[in-house]
Design a protein that fits this description.
By secondary structure, the chain is α/β, with parallel strands linked by helices. It has nine helices and 14 strands. Helix 2 packs across helix 3 and helix 3 runs parallel beside helix 4.
């Protein structure tokens, strides 16, 4: 891995999205009007270092967690070779993004940019630099939106870990506009476990109330669609499913889903699960929760059985690092609909500008 560059390095300007709770390139002043159909690209869980970490710590994790950890789906790769493969998949995704015609309106990476936690200072810093080196190659006319995940700011984030993310990537929550559509970027970790940063969680709550009020206010632009983006999904399959590791607490999710649909939100794109799923919630309007698998390591799910929580860590069956399962999602925004499809790394060479042909 590369050494850690100083703050204000060569990649600083490329990762300047989301300051002042908006995006400098994607704001209401320039993007609030519908200008016809467009596409964007969603990725999740690049999570550089995940495969190697799981190989190294599997036995320890099994004892600590009290259940069998995922089987190694890439046994022929060493930890360093797996890391190189994770970088390769991200590089191939960026190459495919740059080849899309027409160009996407923006690219968003929905959290867990790297695997190391904030307390793994230098390791996380090196992984962040590899992420920035690769994603700085996204063509300059395509804005880049980076969300925080639990690995980026910690399972129990604090003002210190959030500030570190802010300095590297911009705000942890904000809104932006693209082609007449309003997007809400949420820091889902503040909903998952706010106990280490109660003040930050309260501030995000107040901000979201204000943003949703603006969305339906007569004196503000009326969006063609409202779309939420986060790392953790509110739910994996059903809004009534129990709380677990891979979704938001049930009472929190109920509040958010109700508020978002009352403001007209129809899509919520997420990551974290390392598998592809969708689910629907209906109140005022129907909201589709789209959970995208990883561009890095992916997971399979155990068959249900005693001691297995399919929505939790004990439900992980195997960890894969395969071009047949890793990938990214292409999203097509029409005036009256939003459609999407997940494209694997193996399928990327055949896109041929497919973002414009959803």
């Amino acid at each position: 891995m590369s050494s850690v560059p100083a703050i204000g390095s060569e990649w600083g300007k490329r990762f300047s999205g989301g300051y002042g709770r908006t995006h400098p390139q994607l704001n209401a002043e320039h993007e609030a009007s519908w200008a016809g159909p467009f596409s964007f690209v969603q990725l999740a869980d690049t999570q550089f270092g995940m495969t190697g970490a799981m190989k190294t710590w599997s036995a320890t994790l099994a004892r600590f967690l009290g259940f069998e950890v995922p089987r190694d789906g890439a046994p022929d790769l060493s930890g360093s070779a797996a890391y190189a493969k994770e970088l390769e998949f991200a590089e191939r995704a960026v190459d495919a993004i740059n080849a899309l015609q027409p160009a996407p309106a923006f690219v968003c990476v929905c959290g867990d940019l790297v695997n190391a936690f904030p307390n793994e200072g230098r390791v996380q810093g090196c992984q962040v630099n590899d992420f920035k080196r690769i994603f700085s190659r996204v063509r300059e006319d395509v804005p880049l939106v980076c969300l925080c995940g639990n690995h980026d700011i910690g399972n129990r984030p604090t003002s210190t870990t959030i500030d570190l993310f802010n300095r590297r990537f911009g705000d942890d929550y904000f809104s932006f506009w693209a082609g007449g559509v309003k997007f809400l970027v949420l820091n889902s970790q503040l909903y998952k476990d706010p106990t280490g940063c109660a003040e930050g969680a309260a501030a995000q709550d107040a901000w979201l109330v204000d943003e949703l009020a603006k969305t339906v206010a007569a004196n503000h632009p009326t969006p063609k669609h409202v779309v939420a983006l986060s790392h953790i999904s509110p739910f994996i399959h059903s809004p009534e499913e129990p709380s677990s590791y891979f979704n938001l607490p049930k009472e929190v999710r109920a509040r958010l889903l109700k508020s978002l649909t009352e403001a007209g939100c129809s899509k919520w794109f997420c990551g974290h699960y390392h598998r592809n799923t969708t689910g629907l919630y209906t109140h005022c309007t129907t909201l589709e929760v789209v959970t995208s698998s990883a561009v890095g390591a992916t997971l399979t799910t155990k068959a249900e059985g005693e001691g297995v929580d399919p929505l939790g860590l004990s439900g992980m069956d195997s960890m894969m690092l395969s071009e047949q399962s890793s990938g990214m999602r292409l999203v097509r925004v029409e005036e009256n609909d939003i459609t999407h499809r997940f494209v694997t790394i193996a399928e990327l060479p055949g896109l041929d500008g497919g973002a414009g042909k959803m």
